[in-house]
Amino acid sequence: MNSIRQRLLIGLLAGLSLVLAASGYATYRQARTETNALFDYHLQQTALALRNQNLLALAMGAEDEGGDLLVQIWDRSRGLLYVSQPQRELPFATQAGFADLIWREKSWRLFALHAGDRIVQVAQPLSVRLRMSADIALHNLAPFLLLLPGMGLVVWFGVGAGLRPLYRIAADIERRRPDALEPVPAERLPAEITPLVHALNDLLARLAQVLDNQRQFVADAAHELRTPLTAVRLQAELARQATGPDARAETLRDLGAGLERASHLVEQLLAMARLDANPSTGRIEPVDLLALARAAVAEQAAIADARNLDLGLLPGEPVAVGGDPIELRTLLDNLVDNALRYTPGGGRVDVGVSRTEAEAVLAVRDTGPGIPPIERERVFDRFYRGAAVTTPGSGLGLAIVKRIADRHRARVCLSEPENGPGLRIAVHFPLV
User: Fold this and answer.
1) Could you tell me which residues come within 8 angstroms of residue 293 by beta carbon, excluding any fewer than 6 positions away?
2) Does the pTM exceed 0.90?
3) What CATH class does 4-158 carry?
4) Using CA atoms, how far apart are residues 67 and 128, in angstroms rounded to an integer?
5) Of 78-87, 93-102, 238-247, minimum mean pLDDT range
């Protein structure tokens, strides 16, 4: 049973039935108490009325022997002088007043009155009282029992009216086009439905952002890959048309460089696409920044040697931060790759790890041309490259760095080195 309306109907009717059952039991108990008091009074008054009656008059006036009351008159020697129903004769009551008696598997309520030389006993079966108490309780509850079907209809249609905003929202979403991700109107909605609509709108906003990122990625990839692929195609054509070994070797070198640039661009695009697809970091675990930096420097040492660059790791102590080790390695690889790309031959690239009281700092410093202060905010935009930049690149490296840093609640700061030309990029992480 997955219907909210059915659940509410059954739950409310079950609750009402339990309340009616409890009320019926309480009404029955109250009716039984009042009925006992009334019949006890009736027994007492009947005995008082008979204490001075003539036995002959009683015998002649006993017309109904099948009534509920049983009247017996005894003398002091326990001789039975009169009984209204001989077939239901009860034993002699030794004590005056009210008493409960079980005689021949039947319960009786008895009142005995000592009047001179006579003892008057008036008795009544308890079943009469129980039946009357049940009748009174049933008569009191009968109107409510008859109203239960009406209550069920009221609950059914009332809940349906309350759920109508949900049906309206569902119909509005069903009528939308697949690309229509505008927020669902939340005005004049019940308070119980408003959180659901807000959560749905938040989901639509995130979905719209993901779709925008995908569209942007496709557009950027198509635009950025066009130039290197065209260059590779032209270089391959030149290599095919080359006549001499030297010319063919030169064109093949150019073709290899073009393929390397295209491969690097594809890797950067895929890295950015993965970051866009996952709004939060993957697994979070303690990561030693010094060990991470040591591995990155060792891996790119051959590239630095090929470019006649001095790549090294500055002395430092292990510092742990919380994050995704794969993403943090991607961040550091992009920082080092950028530094190696833009630093001229004979230059130097240093990677350092340090800590302050509240932060861990991962810094990469190079002796390249640096970035003018006016451009330092824009270098984190995708595919942005300064006007004076001639070094081949995709313009995605620092955008990836900034995206990963934001996912790890870190800050990226660009500054000039304290001594000499170049650029220092420092990423400040909160300590574990």
Assistant:
1) 313, 332, 351, 352, 353, 362
2) no
3) alpha beta
4) 11
5) 238-247
Residue 234: partners with Cβ closer than 8 Å, 6 or more residues away = none
- 363, containing H or E segment: strand 359-366
Q: How far is CA 193 from the centre of its chain?
A: 14
Model pLDDT, residue 369: 83
CATH code of 178-279, in short, is 1.10.287
Return the SS3 of 93.
coil
DSSP for 408-425, written as a single string: TT-EEEEE--SSSSSEEE
pLDDT tens for residues 283-326?
788 899 999 999 989 888 888 888 899 999 999 888 889 888 88
Write down the domain spans for the chain: 4-158, 178-279, 282-430
- Residue ranges in 163-244 assigned as alpha helix (H): 164-174, 194-241
Q: Are 425 and 356 in contact (CB under 8 A)?
A: no
Higher pLDDT, 67 or 405: 405
- Residues 282-430: name the CATH superfamily: Histidine kinase-like ATPase, C-terminal domain (3.30.565.10)
CB 93 within 8 A of CB 121: yes
Tokens of 312: 């090294």
Q: Which residue has the tokens 């009155």?
A: 113
Q: In 3D, which of 284, 357, 364, 354 has the Cα closest to residue 319?
A: 354
Contact 173, 196 (CB under 8 A): no
Average pLDDT of 343-361?
A: 89
More confident residue, 389 or 370: 370
